[in-house]
Design goal:
By secondary structure, the chain is mainly α. It has helices spanning about 5-25, 35-55, 65-100, 120-135, 140-150, 165-205, 210-225, 230-250. The chain contains 8 helices and no strands. Helix 6 (about 165-205) packs across helix 7 (about 210-225).
Length: about 250
């Protein structure tokens, strides 16, 4: 039974910091589309559910300095875990940006005045990745991962130097490889299109390659991207499954 004492309130606050900074790094919850008040209430609800579902020892604090130190550790743990999970979504975003640029669709960012640095195709890629992530049970996996982290890393016991730099680099490499795999069909099609246009311009200089090449590059890029969507879905699904297992091992510090 949870008693409404100071130690229980401090424990809920520390778990709230872990959850809030974790959600802050997730693409949907970390954007300005979701109001800050909603994020705060949602993080507090998840933190309170963790306290009800998991046996967490109340944190005893002797001074204000110790409370600030523990709070910073919890915020750092949530930020680090969210950063690890965000890498896979950033890889999908980069893949969408690369596809948009090489397909001649970079100008579409003017249709997103609130996000001038993001193309429409990159936003579509993130939505596709988020839908696949939710369909694979990603939300449940993340919830269980944070819940289990309270067993292995109780509030106030996180040590940044205990993290393995090799694991973090492997997360980054795998995410970068995913972005390259997703954008590879359009990159190859764009390269072949440019080679063909260069040959045409060499043998028939009367043709305005720029006027012909831009619509052709957009058409080829969109057709190749549409045809490769099933393969992209298979690649993303396979990678996300492996990534979720690696994320769970990271959350329990194994």
């Amino acid at each position: 039974m949870i008693l409404p004492d100071v130690e229980s309130l401090i424990t809920v606050f520390l778990i709230f910091l872990r959850v809030f900074f974790f959600l802050f790094m997730i693409p949907f919850f970390g954007t300005f589309f979701l109001p800050t008040v909603v994020r705060i209430y949602f993080s507090f609800a998840i933190a309170f559910s963790f306290l009800l579902m998991e046996t967490v020892e109340p944190v005893r604090v002797d001074s204000s300095f110790q409370l600030v130190e523990i709070a910073l550790k919890e915020a750092l743990f949530g930020f680090t875990a969210g950063f690890i999970l965000r890498l896979i979504f950033d890889a999908i975003t980069v893949a969408g940006e690369v596809i948009a640029v090489h397909a001649g669709l970079g100008f579409l960012m003017m249709f997103l005045p609130q996000q001038p640095q993001t193309t429409v195709l990159a936003g579509f890629s993130v939505l596709l990745g988020s839908a696949l992530f939710l369909s694979l049970g990603g939300a449940e996996t993340v919830y269980i991962g944070i819940l289990k982290s309270l067993e292995t890393v109780p509030p106030g016991y996180f040590d940044l130097y205990s993290l393995s730099g090799e694991k973090i680099i492997s997360f980054f490499y795998s995410s970068f490889a995913l972005g390259v795999k997703v954008a590879l069909p359009v990159l190859i099609a764009s390269l072949l299109t440019n080679i063909i246009l260069a040959v045409v311009n060499r043998f028939i200089p009367q043709i305005n390659v720029f006027m012909v090449g831009l619509p052709l590059q957009i058409m080829v890029g969109l057709i190749v991207f549409a045809l490769s969507l099933p393969v992209i879905g298979i690649v993303l699904t396979s990678h996300m499954r492996e990534y979720m297992f690696s994320f769970m091992r990271f959350m329990v510090m194994k």
